[in-house]
Amino acid sequence: MRSGGVTLAAEREDAMTRAMSGCEPARKKSRFIRHDGASYMWLGYSVFYFVEPIMRHDGRFWLQCMGVYAIFLALYVAYVEVENDRVRLALLAGMFALGVAMTPVNDGAISFMFYTAAMLPFSRVPVPVVFGLILADSAVLIAMGGVLHHRYMSFSLSAFMMIVVGGGNIMLAQQRRAGMALNAAQEENAALAAVAERERIARDLHDVLGHTLSVIVLKAELAGRLMGIDDARAKAEIDDVERTARTALAEVREAIGGYRTRGLSAEVEQARRTLDAAGVRLLCETQPPTLRPNDETVLSLAVREAVTNIVRHAHATRCTMQFQTTGDGYNLLLVEDDGNNMSGREGNGLRGMRERVQALGGRFRVERDRGTRLVIELPAFQVGEAFQVGEG
């Protein structure tokens, strides 16, 4: 999972860098990257390179300048098209060297050095290093003006403009990085929200279907045993199977659209009927409390999962359910049976129950000694007066 996250982060960084270069994302295992064509618009600034050849009216000089420009054009196209970052930095160095070599012959070749300063901020080089390289480029240009003893002020002004252009692009690149990082964070948050929603639905479907299907199986088995012995009760159990199946269908639809339980009191009463059908006596001498909707949903699902586990695994004869208030302000649900379920493995149902409780700031524990004891504590809900649920 971690390696997948690192790969995803690297792909996002690649996409970010290419976007800031005017290029679209590359295909995997491709040497070249696709661009949107906008990168070639900036070649318009190279028109200054042709000012001096136009002024000199020298055919040989024209050929020399065109040959050098062809080299620059090849470097530029390679920079736009090639994906490898080290190769791109080498291409920028080639543009700069070409400008240094040609500027003594044609002052317009300074534009090649400008391209280097303008493109460097969009590379994956630390900002201080980029700014240092731009300053070094400017210093080289000023030194050239001093060595050549002509147009020193013009070269110095060009060096200053190079710093301005490079610095401005550094700010622009940082803004784009921040914007793309924000977009990436929003995409990741949306993905995490989708994962959390899928997990919620998975937990709820497990609780809903696990309980109701267990009830259907239990009642169908009971009806089968009663056939020919007590046909009236067998028919009643089959009718109950039908009602339970219809209820399960409705609850699945509710779970998909945002599950809500029927209420804690109704869940306790359903638990009594389910346990009674399984031959388990339920004792509940405290009244379910009035809760906030989220808290009631969590406790209702906890009661349902606990009863399902008792019916499936515990082989119990008695179940005790209590609602209490602890001394430190938590409200407690206790479900205890006298079965022999000694498994220490926490299945999907208990895991989902634990996650729900902890998401509300509650405490959750399962104790297994003589039977199973489930303890759930949630903060800040009110407990009502005691009442007796039928003894079955």
Automatic annotation (TrEMBL):
Give the CC-aspect GO terms: membrane
Which GO-annotated molecular functions does the record name?
phosphorelay sensor kinase activity; protein dimerization activity
Entry keywords, A to Z: Kinase, Membrane, Transferase, Transmembrane, Transmembrane helix, Two-component regulatory system
**Source species taxonomy:** Bacteria, Pseudomonadati, Acidobacteriota, Terriglobia, Terriglobales
Tell me which Gene3D superfamilies the record gives.
1.20.5.1930, Histidine kinase-like ATPase, C-terminal domain
**Which spans are transmembrane here?**
37-55, 61-80, 87-105, 125-148, 155-173
Coiled-coil ranges per UniProt:
none
Q: Which InterPro entries match?
A: HATPase_C_sf, HATPase_dom, Sensor_HK_TwoCompSys, Sig_transdc_His_kin_sub3_dim/P
The reply to whether Membrane figures as a keyword in the UniProt entry is yes
Q: Which species?
A: Granulicella rosea
What name does the UniProt record give this protein? Answer: Two-component system, NarL family, sensor histidine kinase DesK
Query: Domain named Histidine kinase/HSP90-like ATPase: which ranges?
Result: 294-382
Q: Carries keyword S-adenosyl-L-methionine?
A: no
One of the Pfam families matching this protein, by short name? HisKA_3
Superkingdom of the source? Bacteria
